[in-house]
């Protein structure tokens, strides 16, 4: 039994059922006396909140940090793996591929002038006994014939010469022209020089016949060396032949005798008409005369 009243706090006698002071029934189950309640419990200071347990924190932040750490570790491992990779070697060439590479022909050097013109000139020249290499030609410029530069001689002693093929008279001649006169004609053509110009040429004509021009030049068997002084003018990009004269001996002091034979006139005119074309092709092909 409690010793004090649970309502007013007055002492209770033994085995009493009501408080003698306030009449409040005594509860037999209460074994300990209850202390009186404070008059104003709201004025008591609040107990401080318990400190968070050590090691506690935001679970989402922890998960994010863990994911970031794993990503960094994975990226570093991938970079290390790439740095250790050895580049794949190209397969070694087999005997078949090496053979194919050796047999592959080297690209041919293209000539400045059309190979068709050079081949056609070479074929026509061979019909007249000229079998040397054709370096440049005026083939195709004139329907009366053409000029070409031939390489001739023995190995180590090679030289070049101008050959003329007169197709309308079926004749061929080796043409000798002074290099300064060739240069003068070439420059005069480029500069469209006005007035009458001249050029001296010597034609070596094999198997020629003694005719009205037989006394001109000189003979060695059937080979006729015919010197000709050729006058010409340049008009609108073309060479127009003029007066043609000759003289006695292969190197005459004066040449005042006119040519009588038309075949010889044709030979000289063809030279004048095609010479610039030949020189232009020779310059493009870097051929010296």
Describe this structure in words.
The protein folds into 2 domains: 1-35; 115-284, no CATH class. Helix content is 28%, strand content 22%. The protein is built from 5 helices and 9 strands. It has helices at residues 59-83, 95-103, 115-126, 179-190, 262-284; strands spanning 133-137, 145-152, 159-166, 171-177, 197-205, 218-220, 223-235, 238-246, 257-258. Strands 1, 2, 3, 4, 5, 6, 7, 8 and 9 form a 9-stranded antiparallel sheet that branches. Strand 3 (159-166) and strand 4 form a beta hairpin. Helix 4 crosses helix 5 (262-284). The radius of gyration is 62 Å and the shape is rod-shaped. Residues 29-34 have low confidence and may be disordered.
Using brief descriptors, characterize the structure shown:
289 residues, alpha+beta, 2 domains, 9-stranded antiparallel beta sheet, 5 helices, 28% helix, rod-shaped
Q: Could you tell me the number of beta strands?
A: 9
Strand content: 15-25%
Instruction: Spell out the helices and strands N to C.
Output: HHHEEEEHEEEEEH
The main sheet comes to: 9 strands, antiparallel
Termini, distance in Å? 152 Å
Q: Structural class, from secondary structure content? A: alpha+beta
Q: Which overall shape is indicated by the principal axes computed on the Cα atoms? A: rod-shaped
Total number of domains: 2
Low-pLDDT ranges: 29-34
| Mean pLDDT over all positions | 82
Helix content: 25-40%
Round the Cα radius of gyration to an integer and report it.
Answer: 62 Å
């Amino acid at each position: 039994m409690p010793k004090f009243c649970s309502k007013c706090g007055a002492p209770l006698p033994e085995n009493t059922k009501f408080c003698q002071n306030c009449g409040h029934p005594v509860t037999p189950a209460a074994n300990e006396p209850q202390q009186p309640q404070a008059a104003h419990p709201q004025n008591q200071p609040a107990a401080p909140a318990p400190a968070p347990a050590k090691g506690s924190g935001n679970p989402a932040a922890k998960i994010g940090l863990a994911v970031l750490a794993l990503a960094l570790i994975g990226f570093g491992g991938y970079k290390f793996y790439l740095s250790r990779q050895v580049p794949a070697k190209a397969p070694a060439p087999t005997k078949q591929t090496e053979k194919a590479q050796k047999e592959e022909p080297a690209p041919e050097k293209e000539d400045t002038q059309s190979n068709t013109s050079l081949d056609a000139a070479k074929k026509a020249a061979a019909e007249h006994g000229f079998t040397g290499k054709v370096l440049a030609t005026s083939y195709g410029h004139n329907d009366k014939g053409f000029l070409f530069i031939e390489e001739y001689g023995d190995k180590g002693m090679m030289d070049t010469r101008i050959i003329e093929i007169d197709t309308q008279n079926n004749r061929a001649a080796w043409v000798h022209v002074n290099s300064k006169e060739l240069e003068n004609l070439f420059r005069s053509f480029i500069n469209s020089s006005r007035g009458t110009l001249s050029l001296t040429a010597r034609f070596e004509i094999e198997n020629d016949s003694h005719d009205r021009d037989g006394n001109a030049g000189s003979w060695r068997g059937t080979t006729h060396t015919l010197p000709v002084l050729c006058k010409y003018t340049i008009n609108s990009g073309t060479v127009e032949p003029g007066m043609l004269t000759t003289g006695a001996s292969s190197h005459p002091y004066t040449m005042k005798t006119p040519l009588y034979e038309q075949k010889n006139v044709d030979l000289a005119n063809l030279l004048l008409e095609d010479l610039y074309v030949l020189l232009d092709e020779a310059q493009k092909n870097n051929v010296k005369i």
